[in-house]
Amino acid sequence: MQTGKINVQTENIFPIIKKFLYSDHEIFLRELISNAVDATQKLRALSSMGNIKEDLGDLTIEVILDKEKGTLTVRDNGIGMTAEEVDKYINQIAFSGAEEFIKKYKGKSEADAAQLIGHFGLGFYSSFMVSSKVEIFTKTYKKGPGSKAVKWECDGSPEYTLTETEKAGRGTDIVLHIADDSKEFLEESRILGLLKKYCKFLPVPIRFGNEKTWEKVEGEKDEKGNDKYNEIEKPRFINNTNPAWKRKPVELTDEDYNSFYHELYPSTFEEPLFNIHLNVDYPFNLTGILYFPKVKRNIEVQKEKIQLYSNQVFVTDSVEGIVPDFLTLMHGVLDSPDIPLNVSRSYLQSDANVKKISNHIMKKVADKLEDIFKNNREEFEKKWDDIRVFIEYGIITEPKFYERAEKFCLFKNTSGKYFTFEEYKNHISAAQTDKDKKLVYLYTSDADEQHGFIDAATGRGYDVLMMDGPLDNHFINTLEQKFENSSFVRVDADVIDKLIKKEEALPSKLNEEEKNKLKPVFEDVAGKEQYTVVFESMSETEMPVQITRPEFMRRMKDMSMLGGASYMGNFPDSFNLVVNSNHPLIAKMNDEKDENSRKALARQLTDLAKLAQNLLKGEELTGFIKRSVEIIK
Question: Suppose 135 and one of 164, 175, 248, 433 were both cysteines; which one would form an S-S bond, judging by CB atoms 3.0 to 4.6 Å apart?
């Protein structure tokens, strides 16, 4: 029997470990099973090299819960350890790592400590986060002297014992005596949840107890003539040891890829649009499958769907900053041994390998999209409405992605036709270049609400784009910076003659004195706090009164609200109430002697303009309907 004291100055490592890892204490199970997998994989490697002649037998890793005894055991049939190896790897390396971490942790904030943790690993000693005592029973695969089984025991203080023991076969049992403040880890459902979270794709089979299922009894029927089933217990295996991303793409069908998607996201019923299979071995190692889901309008809901693995061990599903932000809208798996398990996100974000991986993934995504566009444009256009937010997000946030995406990013007009940037520029150049040689892109954010304005624009031979996505305000700003001598204007930003200025305005039939006489009447019925009354000289066939939303102020307000800012979002909406000074009804108002009659006509025309912009509601709408009925009488 060997007893000793580990060279740790802190009397008990529990407080330090628990303080730092209080929010992540569940990862102890991931760490212990990762160690068990390593021990098993090393045994397989030794066997493949001919260093072990006999049959390896069953290599399943078992997780054993004994609630009565208060223990949780992780058992493997891997290479095991000799007494000397236990002394080296447990007494010296593991706890010296703990001691070094403790020294460096003192005086640090938790954010700073997050940077340190990766340097020491959380492997074996993470078990003390949840345990009052830890035992190791281990027997090496080696034959001869020194190959006897040994038992190591420690209660988290610097003292330990190391003794010889009996163990039938090679491998290691880690037995955790769960502490009083961690009894949740004696619940079967809690352990099962952790195993499914961290271990569902590990390369060695993992068993956790048994599960009940129903088995058909061949040739037997119940009293009602239905097939007979017996309830049976069978071993519960946690993991798929050969997930799709570890296989070669030539081995997989579309059905295999879709099946794996639903294995990743069992509660998702929609099929993904398409996928990208990654397989890189230089200058870094990376495998994985990324899926394009149907992106919904609320892009935040889509995030935390990429699962990051290191050698098939789950690391995180919070990959913002690790991959470009727009890629977080994708779903799927990334696996790289170059990504360490136990580091903070800030460490990952500054890691050179991670940056290379990030850039490579962005390139592969662009390659895939361009390939689909070039080879099957019809199919690409069918999926455009589902992937446009993803591509727009990439264009807004990543200049390198824009350089690729401008070849396949599409505009869609109100007629449902699709154009590349270059195609659309050629399509509208003749009609939509203004008198200052600037190309004007007209768009609508709501084809129904802005139908009257769209109708006026298309009546002039103009084309109108659909820009009704959640990111389109930012997207438009980005394109204005990229496109030369161009601007984007919403169709209701101004009257038709001023959306794209072609020539000098028509002469007005009202002089300034007459305009000044009518202006207060419209301000009174519309409310000058929200509406700015302006007179424009337009064709007699245009509407007598229109309400427009000035492009700059409206876009600034929309963008600030989208970004969560309040400096513009708290401002009231700003509108122009545009009076057509050449319309016969306006001339009639000007000639009207009775002030009440003039005001009644102004109110009716203003309400019609509000109705066209969906601004007439509540009491105002009721009053308009009643007046309209009276007029019809």
Answer: 175
Evaluate the CA torsion angle 447, 453, 458, 459 in order and state its sign: positive
Contacts 24+ apart (CB under 8 A), 480-483: 482/402, 482/406, 483/421, 483/425, 483/439
253 annotated to a ligand binding site: no
Note the pTM of the prediction, 2 decimals: 0.75
What is the structure's pLDDT at 20?
53
User: 394: annotated binding-site residue?
Assistant: no
Instruction: State the residue for tokens 């036709």.
Output: 417
CATH assignment, 244-376 = 3.30.230.80
User: Is the pLDDT at 124 greater than 90, yes or no?
Assistant: no
Residue 317 phi, psi (nearest 5) = -120, 15
Query: What pLDDT does 255 receive?
Result: 94
Buried b (16+ CB within 10 A) or exposed e, 205-227: bbbbeeeeeeeeeeeeeeeeeee
In the prediction, which pLDDT does 121 show?
43
Helix (H) or strand (E) holding 443: strand 439-444
Is 172 annotated as contributing to ligand binding? Answer: yes
Note the pLDDT of residue 516: 92
Of the options 3.40.50.11260, 3.30.470.20, 3.10.180.10, 3.20.20.70, the CATH number for the domain spanning 409-499: 3.40.50.11260
345 is in an annotated binding site: yes
For the ranges 135-139, 147-151, 194-198, 336-340, which has the lowest average pLDDT? Answer: 336-340
Q: Is 31 annotated as contributing to ligand binding? A: yes
Q: Specify the CATH number for 2-208; select among 3.40.50.2000, 3.30.565.10, 3.20.20.210, 3.30.70.2190.
A: 3.30.565.10
Instruction: Determine the Cα–Cα distance for residues 315 and 322; give it in Å rounded to an integer.
Output: 12
pLDDT score of 72 more than 50: yes
538 annotated among ligand-binding-site residues? no
The alpha carbon of 41 is separated from its chain's Cα centroid by a whole number of angstroms, namely: 33
pLDDT tens-digit map of 14-35? 555 555 544 567 888 988 998 8
- Domain spans in the chain, listed from the N-terminal domain onward: 2-208, 244-376, 409-499, 512-632
- Binding residue per annotation — 97? yes
Per-residue pLDDT at 579 exceeds 90: yes
175 pLDDT higher than 90: yes
Residue 263: which of 241, 235, 230, 285 has the closest Cα?
A: 241
Q: What is the dihedral of CA 562, 563, 566, 571, to 10 degrees?
A: -40
Give the span between the Cα atoms of 395 and 416, in whole angstroms: 22
511 is in an annotated binding site: no
CB 618 within 8 A of CB 583: no
Q: How far is CA 23 from CA 20, 28, 129, 398, in A?
A: 8, 12, 11, 33
Amino acid at 501: K
Which of 22-36, 46-60, 246-260 has the largest mean confidence? 246-260
Is the pLDDT reported for residue 393 higher than 60? yes
3-state secondary structure 116-157: HHHHCCCCHHHHHHCEEEEEEEEECCCCCCCCCCEEEEECCC
In the DSSP assignment, the letter for residue 2 is E
CATH architecture of 512-632: Up-down Bundle (1.20)
Q: Percentage of residues in the chain with pLDDT exceeding 90? A: 44
Q: Which helix (H) or strand (E) holds 561?
A: helix 551-562
